[in-house]
Amino acid sequence: MSPSNLASVAVGRPVRGEFTYVVPEGLSGRLSPGQRILVPFGRSMSLGFFLGPATPPPEAESVKLKPIMKVLEDSPSLPPDLIALLRFAAEHYRYPLGEVIKSALPPGLTKTEMEKEAKPDVQEFAVALVTEAPAILRRAPAQSAALAYLLAVGGRAPLEEVAHAIPGARETLRKLVERGLVRIDEEVIAPGVKEGLGQGRPAQLTPEQDAAVKELHTAIDTGGFQPFLLHGVTGSGKTEVYLRAVERALSHGKGSLVLVPEIALTPQLVGRFRSRFGADVAVLHSALKDRERLFHWQALRKGTVRIAVGVRSAVFAPVENLGLVVVDEEHDPSFKQEDKLRYQARDLAVVRAKQAGAVVVLGSATPSLETLENTRRGRYRKLELKNRVDDRPMPTISLVDLRQERPREPLAQEEAPILSAPLLDAMAETIAKGQQVILFLNRRGHSTFLICEVCGTSVKCSECDVCLTYHRSQNRVVCHYCGVAHPLPDHCRECTGPLLKMGVGTERVEAEVAERIPQARVARLDRDSATSAERLTEMLASFARREIDVLVGTQMVAKGHDFPGVTLVCVVMADTSLAIPDFRAAERTFHLLTQVAGRAGRGKDPGRVLVQTYNPEADPVKRMLVHDFDGFAQRELERRKVLAWPPYTRMAAVRLEGESAEQTASVARQLGDFLARQMPPASWGVRLLGPAVAPISRIRGRTRWQLLLKAPTHAALAPLLARLEMKLVDIPSAVRVTIDVDPAAML
């Protein structure tokens, strides 16, 4: 059988490998790599992806190959460069290729149905065509009222607004349209953008910005893969450098891909990009409506839009003729996907740029130690922005030692206060000046755990090995791992003793600020309050318009935001992330503290930061106080090298979950024995740690174990992981085993 009659297909199912199908005569010449197709698989039909011609398999004579049933699109969803990236991701992260491809597609392209042209969301506006109501409307009071409303608000208003103000206005406006007194306009809604979040083009760059832009322009003009680290302090104007680089790429007819770590950052960044490039910007993140995501994906694939801005999944955006890739806040752990395809978007962005022959810029005020080490080894070129725009000073940082300044005055709700006197005084002074405050605490809820005053038993989740968090607004205790929620218990279930609310969350901080400083307008920004992309964007816009004095939040307030009115940032508890059993705990603490401190003093008024801590001698805290990233990084890299942790080693975590604790432990030991027998020669430097019970031993009722493989290079790990994958076929289905290459968290 001729290879031209055979097709290599990746099936959108959790199965490894590529499959060979027959190309029917009716489809001959109609297939292109990357097209979505319909194929029989097992006893049903499945979504498939045509990868190219296949060579006849050895068993072709004895096995009847099945035919492709249908082509689901005229042009491929996936261009060749994306297929190459997805093949790399499947191999590197040990995940089925068909599932990798499926995860890269937007909603609407992951089903076994023909592709439909997506339409953007539109908003209807009623526009008055006259300046006063004509006499003909004297006998039509409803029409007269609708027209009068329009004229009163300036002659133009959203249709929904008029309908809300005047019952039955939709039908009334239709009659006014028929009379020629009103017209209805439609405008495409730009997803994720609100007014007031954009900024104009600065008249002049700082000398450091200018030097960085010139280097990037030269690289883009020259062409080819060139990786850069843009190390700029907070407020130094990294975004403007990105914008100038995108302009240069566009001038060469090349597309750009810009990644941000959180949906919270997308509206502000999109506002900046749209103010510069208009409609030539596509937005990609999961909070958009399915239709919007498909619309933007299709616009990029057709080449009608050349700039993609989005979160980690946007690394798979079909940007045509890619010339520039930007990863903003590249250090952020949100770039690592923690389920299914466990990819690191920053690393894939570098791979994609290399495959496309594009320039890649990794930007951060606190670069990850992996990126910093790549720079030190000469793999990346370093561009530095050491000073803020307009010579604004870095914020002054002061420490509040809670061992000395611990607040003791009881509040009305009879709970121990959280905010020390220095914090309260600084907040009151700032608000009195008409300036704004950010309070940062990376813990949601009101109290992070409940404990019995008599026997000391804590209230834990019945499904997970974690304490329940008390949410006062709901009067419930909630598990932040599995989502289980219960009414607040009124006594200990072990001894019926009274329960004490311990630990601190953002909800409790918000309540204390409202009580201590009643004149302040307070809002809270965390996953509980920002329940949708629209709500999140509106809260950020409201804070930008200075309708809020104090914003209390988790890490959502720490990253990338630019609020000129903020002159005071308070870190409520700097110690929350230091005690986590993870070798990256110190690095992440330094990153978070530095990022949130950087929100202060970005306008004309200088900023200051107050940090409450019980551990003033902790290295991340001490170094952050004097903006000493280089000193922190040097000491942390020395520690990592001695202990053989990244960036001096590559890792893969093997994680097990099962309902039966005994069976899960048994399988973990079996895999441990198997890996120990398969280990390469000692000279390869591969090490096996475990098996051991995971730090959080149970989640959603399932017992958790893990093993850890470490090696000097990924190439040394790859053969061992391949043999492990083959072994997993024999593992009982009741125990789920996942391989996490380059794990970001040890929990």
Automatic annotation (TrEMBL):
Q: Which keywords describe this protein according to UniProt?
A: ATP-binding, DNA replication, DNA-binding, Helicase, Hydrolase, Isomerase, Metal-binding, Nucleotide-binding, Primosome, Zinc
Q: What SMART domains does UniProt report for this protein, alphabetically?
A: DEXDc (SM00487), HELICc (SM00490)
Cofactor note as given: Binds 2 zinc ions per subunit.
The record's GO molecular-function terms, alphabetically, read: 3'-5' DNA helicase activity; ATP binding; DNA binding; hydrolase activity; zinc ion binding
Instruction: Please state every residue range assigned to the domain named Helicase C-terminal.
Output: 487-640
GO biological-process terms attached to the record: DNA recombination; DNA replication initiation; DNA replication, synthesis of primer; double-strand break repair
Residues in Helicase ATP-binding domain copies: 219-385
Keyword Nucleotide-binding part of the UniProt annotation: yes
Enumerate the PROSITE patterns for this protein: HELICASE_ATP_BIND_1, HELICASE_CTER
EC assignment: 5.6.2.4
User: Which GO CC terms are listed, alphabetically?
Assistant: primosome complex
Output the superkingdom of the source species: Bacteria
Q: Which residues bind Zn(2+) 2?
A: 461, 464, 479, 482
Quick one: which residues bind Zn(2+) 1? 452, 455, 492, 495
Give cofactor(s), names only: Zn(2+)
Q: Which family does it belong to?
A: Belongs to the helicase family. PriA subfamily.
* Chain's role: Initiates the restart of stalled replication forks, which reloads the replicative helicase on sites other than the origin of replication. Recognizes and binds to abandoned replication forks and remodels them to uncover a helicase loading site. Promotes assembly of the primosome at these replication forks.
Enumerate the NCBIfam families for this protein.
priA (TIGR00595)
Extract the PANTHER family matched here.
PRIMOSOMAL PROTEIN N
Q: How does it assemble?
A: Component of the replication restart primosome.
**Protein name as it appears in the record:** Replication restart protein PriA
Q: Which organism is it from?
A: Archangium gephyra
